[in-house]
Amino acid sequence: MNRRLIIGLFLCVALAQVGVPLSMILRRELVLTQGAYFKFETAPVDPYDAFRGRYVALAIKEDNVPAITDARLSQGQRVFALIGLDGRGFAKLTSAVTARPRGKDYIQARVRYVSEGKLYLDLPIDRYYMEEGAAPMAETVYREHVSRDKQDAYAAVRVKDGFPVIAGLYVGGQKIEDAVRQKATPPKALYNKQQAP
How far apart are CA 65 and CA 62, in angstroms? Predict the structure, then answer.
């Protein structure tokens, strides 16, 4: 094989190996800086499955819309879920369409299933990555805020051109990282008492 061809192919492969991850990072950063801001309420998840290594597993409370009556949808099919706001300022999926909408905020999702006039969606905002060292405490804090009787957790999500990026996870009105730090820090009075000789 021609030596120039081999060098050319090598350079193309090397550029692709650098270019693909770089484009993914740039797209995510672009969404975080320019995307529309939404707060999605989270729902309780399986307690044994809330934290998987470096991320908190999320379930979005509003993960369904009225079924599309004039379309035959199959599991895994791509749809576009339109986003609105409820009376409290939280994001609510209002409907789904099969063609990319123009001039509206939406999330590209996949059909999970259709049942009783509702279309249930797999949304690409199901995990929040964190520092691995904070994992055990984050799991405890998150479970406290998404139990069946107390649900005051939400994911702050930026959306641009159907692509969502989670900007933060909030529990009890504060970022989960701050809640973890507060829970991990001993009370000052107890700390001073332990330090005394």
Answer: 8
